[in-house]
Amino acid sequence: MLAMFFWSFVVGGLICVVGQLLFDVAKLTPGHTMSLLVVMGAVLDGFGLYEPLMDFAGAGATIPITSFGNSLVHGALQDADAHGIIGVLTGMFQVTSSGISAAIIFGFIGALIFKPKG
Questions:
Q1: For 27, which DSSP code?
Q2: Which candidate, 57, 55, 93, 59, places its Cα nearest to that of 74?
Q3: What is the pLDDT of residues 15-51, one digit of tens each?
Q4: Comparing C-alpha atoms, which of 110, 91, 114 is closest to residue 102?
Q5: Which Pfam families match (predicted)?
Q6: pTM for this prediction
Q7: Between 41 and which of 8, 27, 37, 66 could a Cys-Cys bridge form, CB atoms 3.0 to 4.6 Å apart?
Q8: Per residue, what are the HEC states of 32-73?
Q9: Which candidate, 90, 64, 56, 57, places its Cα nearest to that of 76?
């Protein structure tokens, strides 16, 4: 169990290091960096590499933004097998809808509670 925590920390940290290097070295904006990390997770899932990474690293691979790209592709491929071309469009939204809904709801609640600066 201790090894799982260690590898989760290492893999999650390495994903964060990649994001930080994109900020510092490549001078990318936060939006570009986030998009690139999502695409990286999607590509890794497309090649079938992200699932083994999640099995190995646990939360170190499921918590970072790369997991969102994995979820999009995984849902699209899963529903494409079941429903054809329509499944590509609907599958990605079924898998990620709860996370997107939570972000919208908590963002709205935060906007009601706190005053924006500016």
A1: -
A2: 93
A3: 999 999 999 999 999 999 999 999 999 999 889 999 9
A4: 110
A5: SpoVAC_SpoVAEB (PF03862)
A6: 0.77
A7: 66
A8: HHHHHHHHHHHHHHHCCCHHHHHHHHCHHHHCCCHHHHHHHH
A9: 90
In angstroms, the CA 57 to CA 41 distance is 14
Predicted pLDDT of residue 118? 62
Q: DSSP letter at 84?
A: T
Distance in angstroms between the alpha carbons of the first and the last residue of the chain: 47
Q: Is the pLDDT of residue 116 over 80?
A: no
The pLDDT of residue 115 is: 82
Q: Which two tokens stand for residue 29?
A: 């904006």
Q: Which two tokens stand for residue 36?
A: 């690139």
Evaluate whether 50 touches 65 at the Cβ level (below 8 Å).
no
